[in-house]
Amino acid sequence: MSAACLLLSLACAPACAVQGPRRGGALDAEFAQLLPRPAPDAPAAPAWREGRQRLADLRREVAGAGPRTLRVRLSLREPRTGQVIEARGAIAIAPPAVAVDGRARGAGSAAIEPEGALRMILLGPGGTTALDLWTRGDRFRFAVPALDLLKRGDASTPRASLRGLPVDFLRWWMLHPAAGTLLWYERAASVDAFVLRDGDAVIELRIDDRGSIGARRTTWSAAGDARRRQLDEEVVIAERMGCGNVRYAQASTGLLVTVICEAEERDRAPDPRAFVDPDAIRPGDGS
What we know:
With 287 residues, this protein is an alpha+beta fold. It contains six helices and 15 strands. Mean pLDDT is 78; it is low at 1-21 and 99-111.
């Protein structure tokens, strides 16, 4: 089976998504073992202050990584057939401009929006492009060329129309995994557990003292909807922040992805052209 056909599980989001709320698929039980779910009572003031400090430290760590390129190998299990695709590619990251110690930090040599930018290109068998994701600020472009599939959007795009597509999750995980308003913090059994709100999503983020990370992101329909409903739930478990092995599961489609980071380049920032809207580049323009 071709890479394009297997990636159809990403592309046909609304049609293929399972109706109704589900837990986070194959990784949910493993995620739950990291720490029991938080108690309903509000945390005491000292724990709350500790949580805010731990979250600030994590954000500094993410910000300090700077512009970089990851070389990755991906294995994707197509949920309907059980077929597996393997692909290789690169992820260019221009992190967002954030406040570190009260001072704004630029997002690399390129002029990037404060929200940062990301470009992911994966090649399947034969060197053909299996997946091309571009996001800059709140805009995104998701393409599977072999299927002649192209989806674009921005902050005004209804989240329900993106159900099954991991665009928001990838943007959150790769660019600002500690972003969001802190709602809860607890530390137990050498694990820091945070509950964050990021727009219409609620994230449970758990980090143990060895650096292992788990995150569950539950996305809800917009607050203005007549009856608010759960759109999707995604879980990621990583051996560490940055260049490390990552497993990802999506509840709405049953998608399971393993990403192995083979190398990370920080000495040289990604080419700024990687973050230009691909549809704005004219053939032969090179910019």
